[in-house]
Structures are given as structure tokens and as C-alpha cells.
Amino acid sequence: MDKPAFDRRDWIAGLEKGLRIIEAFNDINQRLTASTAARRTGITRTAARRYLHTLQHLGYLESDGQLFWLTPRVLRLGWSFLDSARITRAVQPHLQRISAAVGGAAYFAVLDEDDVIYVARDGATCLRNVGFVLGAPVSPNVSSAGIALLSCCSGKRVNRWLMKQRRFVPFTPYTVTTREGVRSLIEGARHKGYALLEQQLEPKLRGIAVPIHSHSGRTVGAISVSLAMESESPEHAVARALPRLREAEYSLLASL
Questions:
Q1: DSSP 225
Q2: CB of 148 within 8 A of CB of 194?
Q3: Segment 35-74, tens digit of pLDDT
Q4: CB contact at 8 A, 104 and 121
Q5: How far apart are CA 180 and CA 156, in angstroms?
Q6: Tens-place pLDDT, residues 100-114
Q7: Cβ pair 119, 78 in contact under 8 A
Q8: Which helix (H) or strand (E) holds 79?
Q9: What's the Cα-to-Cα distance from 233 to each of 70, 76, 148, rounded to whole Å?
Q10: How far is the C-alpha of 225 from the C-alpha of 107, rounded, in Å?
Q11: Are 234 and 170 contacting, i.e. CB atoms less than 8 angstroms apart?
Q12: What DSSP character marks residue 199?
């Protein structure tokens, strides 16, 4: 799960800066001036202005002459991954079987830097107010898939991730909001080989997840299922869902 070594001779600084400009937009910063883009990316205002205009020319941004905002063309970048990634096609039949067998919604997620990204799903969601939207980043600590993925990381990377999280947002009264509490969730998943989370992101919602590995041992993602808690005990939910998740895990191990 840790990044491989990189030869700086292969580095293209312009590409990095252009992508940083795109990533500077979010729900709070939906429209940026050149000055704001420069501040958010750490590059000069002159350089930010050039990148903004270049991205506008390429169709990724629109502008009124002062403010810039993203266009739908940006979605092509994400869909290129979904269309080309072998793993998303391989997991879809398993997600369908899991969802049909245990109910709820089944997901496949990957770890991207400090966030979990959901790249495939099947089934009706149990979520009412929030959801795991394909391509949207989710904090790993409130996601069973995120905890399962972090449990496969080195202790050094887990420590680095925990230290970067200045504040864990309490989405529900049950959300674990301390570093040691989140570390305990990660270590528990590492010991058991699966993650079980309850009411971390949405009340009355339970998530169960297992990491997925390639035949070389590399962690490529996690499969999870979200279930309404209702009157079902954690033990019964695990007994129902975990064999299906394990079946997908072992089948994918042989094919990846």
C-alpha cells in the first residue's frame, strides 16, 4: 500500500500543477480567481492564471473573465478510470451476488492518498442523508472499507495518516473521533481480517468489509456491504455477510 520509489528525472512539473489546479475546486471553493487558485495550490498567481486559461481552452473550465469553475468535461478523467480499470469489471459480478444474498448495498473501494474512493457498487442503498457516491472521497475512519484498507498498510503509514487528521468529524453520536479510537478500529480489523463498523457515518447503519489482494500480495481495494441494523445483532450480521465477502475475496485473489 506504500508508494514505490520515483525517479525525479521522470517528473513533469507542469502536469502536476495543472492537476493541482483542478483539485483545488471543491464544495466550498466552487469558483476560483487566479489569486485564490494560487493560494490553494502554492504556485504563483501568474502561473495559476496561465493554468486556468489553459484548462479553460481545453474545455475543463469555464470563466466569466474573473472567476473560473469546472465543466462536466472533468468527469471524463474519472470515467476513464472506471472504463479502463480491470478490477472494477472483475468485482461487479461479486457485488451483485453479495447484494442479492445479504441485502443492502455492496461496494468496492480503493485507498487514494488519505481518502477512500468508491469505484463500483450494486444494490439499494440503506443511506438516507448521505451516501457512498462513485468517485467521491470519503474519510476512511467512517467507512468499513476504509478501515479494512488501512489495516493492510504499514504501521508507519497508519501513524502518518492519523497524525494528518487534525479533527475527526462526528457524523453521529457514535462516531469515533479520537486518534486512539480510530487506531483501535484499524488494529481490530488487522487482527480479525475484516472490518465491522456501526453508526459511524449514518445512524442505524452497519458496514462490513474485507480487503482484496492480488496474487502478488498487493492490496488492490476492499469489498464492503452496508446493512440496516434494525434488530439484527453484529454477530448475526457478520455470520451472514462475511462468508459472501470471503468468497469474493478468494475468487478475486485467483484472478487478479
A1: E
A2: yes
A3: 999 999 999 999 999 999 999 999 999 999 999 999 989 8
A4: no
A5: 15
A6: 999 889 999 999 888
A7: no
A8: helix 75-84
A9: 45, 42, 21
A10: 6
A11: no
A12: S
